[in-house]
Amino acid sequence: MISAFLYVYGNLVFFYSMSLIIIYVVLIIMADQQAKKNQKWGKKYIRSMIDSSPYTKGVSIVAGAYNEENSIVDNVNSLLSQDYPNFEVVIVNDGSKDKTLEKMIDAFELVEIPYDYVYKVHCQPFKRLFKSLNPKYNKLTVVDKVNGGTKADAINGGLNVVTNPYFINTDADCLLAKDAIYECIFPVLQDERVIAVSGTMSISNGFLLNSKGEVIEKRPSSKPFPLFQDLEYKRSFLIGKMGWSNINAMPNVSGGYGLFNTEVVIAAGGYSYDSFAEDMDMLWRMIGYCCDFHKEYRVVQIPHTCCWTEGPATFKTMNRQRTRWGRGLIQLIDKHKKMAFKPYYKQLGLITFPYEIIFEFFAPVIEALGLISLIYLLFTGGINWLSFWVMLCTIYLFSIMLSGLIIFYDFIQGGSYNHIKSYLKLLVAGCLEPFIYHPLITFFSLKGYANYIFRTRAVWGDMQHKGHKK
Predict the structure, then answer these.
(1) How far is Cα 175 from Cα 202, in angstroms, rounded to an integer?
(2) β-pairing, 59-65 with 166-171?
(3) C-alpha angle 127/132/138, rounded to 5°?
(4) DSSP code of residue 124
(5) Whose CA is closest to 106, among 139, 148, 134, 65?
(6) Which of 77, 185, 366, 383 has its CA 20 to 30 A from that of 442?
(7) Where are the beta strands (DSSP E) in 10-75?
(8) Which helix (H) or strand (E) element contains residue 110?
(9) What is the pTM assigned to this prediction?
């Protein structure tokens, strides 16, 4: 019985692995095609077209803040320094217990203003609304509300006061590229069907900043977890999402930096306060809304790095973040299972959903069973060593090739770092990732599945408040 199971399982893993390799090769080709479409338009052309147009779309930047008194002033100044002709910044003080609100009031000369609280989407109650007396900060609005425990509730609070047709979902402590709004709004101007645009994100843990919070030097982190995650982000954005974007099958728009159609988000009900993967859940509900009401839609990934965020640097925070992501994935699949394999939901139902189930959800389960099978075969002497080494070397070399391709592409684009030696760190991380980082991610994902199945109570720490950024 065991031998029969191992035989079937071995063949299943072989075809599963080969299918995944083929999918990645196809994604690389599609990502290259999508990148070339984006590169047709130079930065100067994009800027001149937007600046000279009387129909330039207004954009609201919505960011939640919770217990960030030490950095909130610099963070808000960074958001206000965006280079775009028509934008506003909405900071949601999500029930901070420290002096986050007081710091903003003093630094930006805020005063409470009367406001008719019409809740377009669900969130915890507002306390007060603030604007600045200083014309220098006329783009800033600060919402003070009861803590909702999640980033989703904070963003919903911001959605209730935004005044523009598009908004950007980010975190107050993210570093944004000056031209990020230009880059993200351009696909909307090209195609009115675009309901969401995902900007590429990178990790900022190793960056050197001045006293104003401005980047002096871009360099990778000296700690392993942020370095591994930086490589993972590049692979996810520049191959995965760029490839899926080419066929309008994007699985999610990053919770760290994404531009959305305000009307569609509100019509779809806003962010789910109880979701552990609020960014994916929001996009899937937006697409579901468009399909239900027969509206054409497109979701676009751009290769331009729009945002740098701080990744978890310790085992504890990485465990918390990835366990939540695992829990969020199984929750998402359970919540939206009616969409699976249905042509009515277009690419989401026929491509994205099956891929998420087969190659994202089941991957940690298959890997865990593989490890158990390997241990059993080691003790029983049942390993075909030739097949074992061929499979191991094939998958490992493909992984190295994929990492090397991403690193080279980022380098020639002049992307993440200032020095070539910084990319050598990423290359070393790519060589070590399958043996150190990936097994941990698999374990954390399985832990998240178990937490959801057994309804383990979630603890919302700092990393949870920031949400799913991948």
Answers:
(1) 10
(2) parallel
(3) 120
(4) S
(5) 134
(6) 383
(7) 59-65
(8) strand 110-112
(9) 0.91
